[in-house]
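agent> Task received from the user: take the single chain below, predict its 3D structure, and emit structure tokens. No templates, no multimer pairing.
agent> Plan: (1) validate residues, (2) run structure prediction, (3) serialize to tokens, (4) report one or two observations.
agent> Step 1 OK, no nonstandard residues flagged.
tool_call: predict_structure(input=
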Amino acid sequence: MHRFFVEKHNIDRENKNVIINESEDVKHISKVLRLEAGEKIEICDGHNKEYICEIEHMSKKDIRVSIIEEKESNREANVVIDLYQGLPKAAKMDTIIQKCTELGINKIVPIMTKRCVAQIKDKKSEEKKLERWEKIALSAAKQCKRGKIPTIAGLHRFNEVIDKLKEYDLAVVAYEDEETNGLKNLLKNSNYEKIAIIIGPEGGFEKEEIELIKNNYGKSITLGPRILRTETAGFTALSIIMYEIGDLGGR
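)
tool_result: status=success, residues=251
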């Protein structure tokens, strides 16, 4: 069953109906999927509430559906995990956002570090990229039937990230020169509620950046004996955490 996200104010629980008026969703339902009145879809409010609905009326501007069943979504992890990702080159960020959304990330924050080759020239370019990244997160959230859409933050400077680390129960930075401190060991017998993953760009982090993280509530970790690419490291770390907390791998 196809899944769509709508704003909470578009859901009338008392009268059991929902209005879909996002133009891309209206077009997708009517023109791409060619759904008709009487067919069923899933609606999610982005806050872990989902509805089985039946299409009642379709127009060029909106689609009205009736609520058949309402239930809580049980697709989100019980630990909040945010990714701070060194800005990579080309379309690598697209892949990072898509895969991390599938794996259950809460928020993705692109960051500028000393070794970042990629640059966002101005505010207009940033807004354009952010709009693209938000669409990728939305599409991935629909596909994997998330109960919420991950937040894609605007570009942060490295010092801004340092200031935020104290907000987390655990903040880890993947570092190629770390040999002993493994992520798996950090997660044993721990009840973390909020975790930050910090990943460098293609060239990694400068040593002084790692020291700054470590001096401000962060821990450097190894992800294993092989050096992972920037577009692989984030969702590898996320996968390990999700497995260790029991969110991945089944029961």
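agent> Step 4: summary for the user.
The first strand starts at residue 3 and ends at 5.
agent> Done.
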